[in-house]
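Write out this protein's structure.
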Amino acid sequence: MKKLMIVTLMAMATLIAAAQQMRRSSTRRGAVGADGGVAVAQGKDARVAITRKASLGSACLQSAPTANGSSYLGKVFKKPRQWIVPELEYQTAADWQDELTVTWHILLDSKNAKQRDKPAKDKDPVPQYSYYTVTVRYQNVPKGSHAASCVLPPSVLERYGEPAVISVRITNKEGDTLDGQDEGASNLRMPDEWWASDQVFSAKDKKGTPLIARRQGLLDRSKTIFALINPDDYEMVQQ
């Protein structure tokens, strides 16, 4: 009886060891863990890290690239206009990511606008801040360094001002947040996930004027003239 029990226990131990080995061999691996070991390339373990953050204010302003050619009108604007072009760099550790989503949340401050809207009797009061957002999905992202960017045209900069707050979230195909950035001017202390806060967007100044207006127009870089600059730094965008 005792001999039979020993044989049974040994058989169970063999089965457990075999099952564990099968699970290890069938697990997809890729990302490098914090301890330097191999980690499972699933969810948050497929590590992504922002290695260079997007800049605020005038540091993210650029002139549009020039292209040789001619038109009937020629140049209407004689001096180059500035575009808002926040850029960041991120590093991926998994051999491949099927999809990475970069979501931008940007708040412009009209105090530094060149042609700020002036209050008028027959118009609604003008909020000080303008909120823009865009979501960009990159596909087939290989291991290594990559860039992400978005663009606002000169008219937005001239009317609504420079970025005072930039928040970014990078998520994977499963919706896990892998990394993010929250940059704000020294006079702006925004709560976590401020873009989803009803209190933030319902806030008013002392005169009862809303502080923030939601606006549209923030574009993925691939839909602008800036797509011609350093195209190898950017992965394929899901259309």
